Amino acid sequence: MRNKIKEIEQQIQQFSIVNKEELERFRIQFLGSKNCIKELFSELKNVPNEDKKEVGQLMNALRGTAQERFDDAKNHLEETRIDDSKIDLSRPGDQIEIGARHPLSLVRSEIIEIFNRIGFVVSEGPEIEDDWHNFSALNFPPEHPARDMQDTFFIEKGANEMALRTHTSSVQVRVMENSKPPIRTISPGRVYRNEAISARAHCFFHQVEGLYIDKDVSFADLKQTLLYFAKEMFGEKAQIRLRPSYFPFTEPSAEVDISCTICNSKGCNVCKYTGWLEILGCGMVDPNVLEASNIDSKEYSGFAFGMGVERIAQLKYRVNDLRLYSENDVRFLKQFTAGM
Ligand code: PHE
User: Fold this and answer.
1) In a mutational test of the pocket of ligand 1, which residue from 165, 167, 211, 284 has the highest number of ligand atoms less than 8 Å from its CB?
2) In terms of residue numbers, what domain contains 316?
3) For a tag on the chain, would you pick the N or C end, based on fewer CB atoms within 10 A?
C-alpha cells in the first residue's frame, strides 16, 4: 500500500501540465469524482488495523499534494496565458488624437461673445425658409431684381415657395414677429446662394446678422456699435468707414470697411492697396420692415447689420481660399486655436 501511495505521489509530481487540457486531465485523474486516490481510500479497509492510522494520514497528505500541484499549475497557466497572447503591459498606450475646433466655429463664438457683452442675445431659425421670412417681410417687392441678386436656391416654386435661406435676416423677421421691442439679437447661421464655387465664393457660407430695435435708436448707435465690434475683433487700432449702399430692408444702408489689419492700412495685395477691407452690410431698419412684423415704426426705430463669418475668419487667420473651410482636411483644421 505504501508503495502505491509513493507511486501515485511520483505520478502527481511528474505529470506534465503545460496547457488547459493537461490541467483538466490531471484534475480528472487525481481530484475528480472517480480519482485514483479515492480508490486507494476504498482499499484502506484491507490494511492491517495497526497500520490504518499511518496509511490514512499518508493518503490524506497525498490528496493535499494533488490539490496543491493542481492549484500551482492552474495559477501558472493563468499567468503565462498573458504572455501567450503577446500583450506587453509595459508598452506605452496609443496616442489619442485630440481634435481642434473649426476656425469658423472659433470666429463665430468670438463674434457672439463680443455682442453678448453689449446685451445681444443669440436667436436661430430654419435653413429652409418661406418667401415671407426670406424676402417679402424684408421689403423685397415681388419680382424685384434684388431677389435675383441673392442667387436663391429654390426648393419649391409657386404659392408655397420654399428656398434655402439666403441670409439670416430671415431669423430676425421671426424674432420681430414673436417678441416686442426692445429687441437686441444676433442670428448666426449657415446661408446658401447659387454661386459657382471658387476661392472667393461658395454656394454656402455663414453669417452673423444683428438687429437692435428700441425707441430713439439712431445711426450714431449703429456706427458706434460697429466700431466697438471692429476694435474687439481686430484690436484697438482698427478703424471703420461707411460707404452708402442699398438693401431693400434698410434705409439708409451702408457697407462697412475696416482698416486693413494686415498692412496697417499702408496698402497690400489683400486690401488691393486701398488700406480698407469690406466686412459687413448695415443700415437703419426700413419702416416697412417694422410694420410688416407689427412693430409701430412711429414709436420704434432700429438698426441691422450682417457679416460673413468666413470673411472675418479670412482676415483673422489669413486664409485666402474659401473652399478650405469645407473640405475637412485635418491638416488645415488642426492649425487653429482659440485666442489667435
Ligand atoms: N442681409 C444682408 C446680406 O445678406 C446683410 C445685411 C443685414 C445688410 C442687415 C444690412 C442690414 O447681404
Assistant:
1) 167
2) 103-339
3) C
